[in-house]
Specification:
mainly alpha, Growth Hormone, Chain: A, 2 domains, 17 helices, about 80% helix
Length: about 400
Amino acid sequence: MNPWRSLGSLPRAVWVLFTVTLINRTGPMVLPFLVLYLTESLKLSPQRAGLVMVFYGFGALITAPLAGRLSDRAGAFSVMKASLFLSGATLFVFPFVHGFISVVLITVLWAIINEAFRPASMAIITEAVAAEKRKSAFSLNRLAINLGMSIGPAAGGFLAAHSFLTLFIVDGATSIIAGIVLAATRWPTRHEDSSPEIKSQNDSAVTTKRLSVLSDRRFLWFLAVMIPVEIIFFQSQASMPLYLVRDLKISESVFGMLLTINTILIILIEVPLNMAMANWPHRRAVALGAILTGARSGALTFASNAWGVAATVIIWTFGEMIIFPSSSAYVADIAPAERRGVYSGLYVMTFSVAFMIGPWIGLAALEHFGARLLWVGAFVSGCLSATMILAMRSFGEKEARAAEA
């Protein structure tokens, strides 16, 4: 059977979100070239330009839970529209702002507005899609992200070489166009169901609907377990390229081709793979993804050339394709209907935390302890996360007994 054919059963709203995300992700041209703009056009020092990027990460960190809570109160649909329109307007203003403090302030504002889209989009998939189809829906959304990101940065490089002003205008315009497409859509009502796996865990317990987020120990445990895996994942943007180019003597162009393998596999395989795994328990899928993510790092200790690294990229890609749709679906299933935005926001926030500390941890370990210890440590971390995820069954049962008592 053709696994792609069953995508037609997904709600129309998911396809609208696919289109909106594809338009929006085709446009992110400013962020990859922001450091170049700050150093070449505004003549900031590399240190100050790097500090601006840190402030962007800070803005993304604080906006995730705030956007999630706002999604519950005002509606995820409204948050997404506001994020797209205001982000586009901010990008139109950005190139006319000068001075370090002013640039920092508008960068933080842009980060808060721009990153609000992520938890809201996650919450809205949860609202529109029944539990048994959420893995496929999240995979389809990631397909839109990867398709867009395969186009946007390449086009952004061409525009940046000619005019940074045009770069900001095009990026802002795509955000507004995506907002117009979204605004023209009639959004469906919420789904109140959850997967059999989650229902079985809640049968004899006080349900999470009656608990605050901070009282949901199972969810907090899950967030803590995911951070090490996300830290491993973000090594592809820090310690991994440095190790490959500096230590293994792989050229920058070859490294770019290796990343292309990741993108191509995601585009071709992720959706059918997750449709084939639709009936897998979330716990098992997330644990497998964590092991494969860690195994990529462990395998790097044995790679000595581009072909060996390519094999590790394939392992890493399968881990990514399995763990992220499954973890998103798990969060969607356990979140009470009235707090889906908050749960989504806190889940997205873990990525911001990992992005802020992961590259620093990886680079520090590479410089002070060497590549072998870094990659072996990452492998052990992945296995530890998988073990902790599998242990969540007993954790949930203990929680249920405590609630009954």
